[in-house]
Amino acid sequence: MVDAYCGAGLFALTSASLFKQVIGIEITEGSIHWARKNAEINSINNAQFLAGKVEEIFADINLPAAETAVVIDPPRKGCSENFLYQLFDYSPRTVVYVSCNPATQLRDLKLFHRAGYLLDKVQPIDLFPQTKHLECVMSLNKPSPADDAH
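The structure assignment produced for this chain is given below.
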């Protein structure tokens, strides 16, 4: 699993037991420090955290795309097109997109559709009741050529 915009490792660490290897990337060095510390405290040994820009993450990822899930949780402005095009070139089969801004998530969803991804599920989550803030989780899948043969 690849966790882009991983922060202190919430998604990477809570999902680590489901994957052989987890790689998280975050631009903020302090967040990477805490992600590594959280992994150590919780005895999670299959998680690696890299400080850097998500737009450059796939240059250092050696996981097979067809077997890799990617979780993205970008800032309110959504994903940059540069990041998305690199993600599409990597071509993971599954992407889970967590967003605090449904408008930018919808904007990015259009690019996912053009890249051949299908929207599987959408789950809005009201983490901050009685405010205008809404989290939204989308799961997207890219059919493999073998899926088309069936």
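Interim note for the steering committee: The domain at 68-150 is CATH 3.40.50.150 (Rossmann fold). The beta strands are 2-4, 22-26, 47-51, 69-72, 94-99, 118-125, 135-141.
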